[in-house]
Please model this.
Amino acid sequence: FELIVWRKRRPNVAELKIKFASGLYDRFQPLYTKEVVPEGIELDFSVIDDPREIFDRMARGLEFDACEMSGTEYISRFAAGDCPFVAIPVFASRMFRHGFIVINTRSGIKMPKDLEGRRIGVQLYTMSAAMWIRGMLRHEYHVDLSTIRWVQGAIDSAGSHGSPTVLPLLKQPDIENNATDRSLSQLLEDGNIDAVLGATLPTGLGSHPDIARLFSNFREIETDYYRRTKIHPIMHLIVIRRDVHEANPHAAPALFESFQKAKEIAMGHMRFTGALRYMLPFLPDDIDEIDRVFEGDPWPYGVALNRSTLEAEVQYMVEQNYIAKPMPIEDLFVAGIG
Model:
């Protein structure tokens, strides 16, 4: 109905076709099903469940008009002054990462400070998940990151994690690429590395007797962390090709509004507990926790409601040599949105 009303109101304006790529998240699904239609835009939604593939295709060849994008990769390019896209404050992925530090218990690691001087696996040193974990380790547990030797590679196969096109760090840490014929998961089980951290969990967790999380009570720790810091780590945001944005300035606000509406619909579906929409047996209790901890919205869009998280992200990226200096977080996004 809204789309019909818009067409009657602006009959001479052709719809802009936007080729969009993202994972099919619950908060985006109403855009995929066209329950929500951005005003003046025909959204061609390509579902790609591997974020690394999206990032690589966008960074290397600008294959999409808009897409999900790594937060650290976008901010690095923005700070370097050579960014072919703009961003809107819609966050495709965000996740607490305390539970993504996994150790070999034979290494003697008992607490975060024990990670100092160790050899630690990471899918991609520059990935957002790894940046957030290192920032948390430094600020919450005073871990000296400069003492760590990093082994970079895929979690569940030999070789690299995708084919990333990322900007070089301003100062290179002690990183080696995994040149063996084993995955990081196998290296961890064999004791060749002491721990793994990043965006996914090693295969041995839950099945290998020596593989365990550093924080066994990670949910409790993450809840306390959020209550104290108001940081809910942002992994991915939404970017639009700069040339598309400059030629069609109405697209960014129209997309932001439609993502906001899609999220509201998804939240409504989640909160209907007459029949559980997701295979989460304790979802009603999870919803109660969302209301207690996040005041009803665990996934806000916009700059103002995410200031603590965004400022921490920029600060950590300066500290970890992604970018030379901080910038106002408002500058990262299309002006006047959110």
Observations:
- Confidence is low (pLDDT under 50) at residues 1-13.
- The chain has eleven helices and eleven strands.
- Residues 104 and 191 are 7 Å apart (CA to CA).
